[in-house]
Amino acid sequence: MLTISPTGLWTIDPPHLFMKLRAVTGMNDILPEESRAYQRLEQRFRAVVETYGFRELRTPIVEELALFHKSTGETSEVVQKQMFLLAKEGESLALRPEGTPSAARVYIGNKVHAREPVTKWYYIGPMFRAERPQRGRYRQFHQAGCELYGDPGPFADAEVIDMVYRLATDLGLRDVGVRLNTLGGSEARFEYRRRLTEYFTPRSAQLSEHAQARLSDNPLRILDSKDPRDQQACEGAPVLLDCLTDADRAHWQGLLAALDRLKTPYEIDPRLVRGLDYYTRTCFEVVTQSGNIGAQTAILGGGRYDDMLASLGGPPTPAIGFALGIERILLALGEHAHTDPPLVFFAPLGNAATLACLELAASLRAQGVWVELDGRGNSLKSMLRRADGMSARFCIVMGEQEAEQGTAQLKDLTAHDQKVLPQAQLVQAILDALASPSTSTGASPAPTSGSPT
Ligand code: AMP
User: What does the DSSP assignment read for 210-239?
Assistant: First the structure.
């Protein structure tokens, strides 16, 4: 469908020029009434992780494809099947499917280890995976995640897991559960792979086609297959806990003891392996029964990845991180539309009144109040209808005569009363009404800036 001419210009075959004027399947527009729910979740996320010392990192959404091959892992489903590739002459680029590789690239490239013994970063942004879209699974979705570099100990894991548990409950999710497992270090994993291969090879005829393919490249992934044939074959499979080295075991015990001390509930799930290749030792998922998120009950996933930075050419650096899926959490919370702070609507009639209202509106906005001014010269009736449609709390009506006399009519659309006030008192009267707890709506001023009192 796309052709490059010898001069390097792109052309699109005519049939592909036909477009349907809607977003690409699995990639959703976030309309203004929905984006408030995103903002709230993001604000809550920032507020919680910043108390643990995480600071925000922002990276491009496009990276070299090789970065994901080397970090997310060649055998991971994400890299094998779900990358959105961008071909540019001499470059192989990709839309990022996750945030961890970019953060690792920045950490290594900026030699952050040389100046900070421990580094804590968080990120928020869109990710792209060419998956089959379904409820809670999209091709563009948003993740918020954290990465902690430089602390190999189990207490770092405990703190991160405790943080995600608190975050999930703080967001209002119900029946939050932490599923936890250890994948051991590289030595244990090597041994475990060997035992799994030995176990599954004589049973390969009973496995799904997908699992048969995994047998040679990543037999661990057979363990989290949802196919009943694979699940049956997994019964009696060796368990990783038997392959742990003493150091892995001490780490695991240390983590469990710390979580017990923090009273963080968790459930050990020896089948939890997660879809990305790079995890070592601890891996975890947070699930919720809240709301309706379809088959996808996991809202967050993460783990330790102590070998990744060295494998990317960086200094050996222990690391642990996680990412949560914003859409999935919003689905679980059943949050889409949110009520905005109370709105003040100006309905001026004539130029003199509009100018006076512009000035009053500016004074209110400077106090953080949300203001809409209809300066189109429309009829009073249509302006009042619009104020109503926007659920405005107050409407200020100013005609030519009032503009001349320096007064205005203040309508409280919730309490259904109105009074005429000198313009000089109007701003204070609105601020007082918004701040008063006795107002019928219990409305308070917009939280976006300083208090108006
Ligand atoms: P992962 O990066 O695969 O470890 O996933 C971490 C979290 O991101 C999951 O628990 C989901 O909440 C979310 N997530 C992953 N893939 C998708 C997707 N295709 N659509 C929506 N959310 C996703």
Answer: HHHHHHHH-GGGGGG---HHHHHHHTT---
The Cα 294–Cα 43 span in angstroms is 26
Residue to mutate, 79, 131, 146, 296, ligand 1, most ligand atoms under 8 Å from C-beta:
296
User: What CA–CA distance (Å, rounded) separates 161 from 259?
Assistant: 8
| Phi then psi dihedrals of residue 341, to 5 deg | -60, 165
> DSSP per residue over 64-79, as a string?
EHHHHIIIIITTSHHH
In order of 83, 130, 222, the CA distances from 80 in angstroms are 7, 11, 16
d(C-alpha 410, C-alpha 347), whole Å: 10
Which structure tokens are listed for 1? 């469908």
- Phi/psi-derived region of residue 114, left when phi > 0, alpha when psi is between -120 and 50, beta in every other case: alpha
139 CA to middle of ligand 1, Å? 10
Ligand 1 near 299 CB (within 6 A): yes
- H/E stretch holding 95 reads strand 91-95
CA–CA separation, 378 and 118 (whole Å) = 61
Ligand 1 atom closest to Cα of residue 137: 20
Taking the centre of ligand 1 as the mean of its atom positions, its distance from the CA of residue 300, in whole angstroms, is 7
pLDDT tens, per residue, the chain with 453 residues: 677 777 777 777 777 777 778 899 999 999 988 898 999 999 999 999 999 999 999 999 999 999 999 998 888 888 888 999 998 778 999 999 999 999 999 999 999 999 999 999 999 999 999 999 998 899 999 999 999 999 999 999 999 999 999 999 999 888 899 999 999 998 998 899 899 999 999 999 999 998 898 888 888 888 878 889 998 999 889 988 899 999 999 999 999 999 999 999 999 998 888 776 788 999 999 999 877 676 668 999 999 999 999 999 999 999 999 999 999 999 998 865 556 778 999 999 999 999 999 999 999 999 999 999 999 999 999 999 999 999 999 999 999 999 999 999 999 999 999 999 999 999 999 999 999 865 443 333 333 333 332
Ligand 1 pocket member 73 (CB < 6 A)? no
pTM to 2 decimals? 0.84
If DSSP codes are grouped into helix, strand and coil, which group holds residue 453? coil
- With a 6 Å cutoff on the Cβ, whether 142 touches ligand 1 is no
328: tokens are: 């999935």
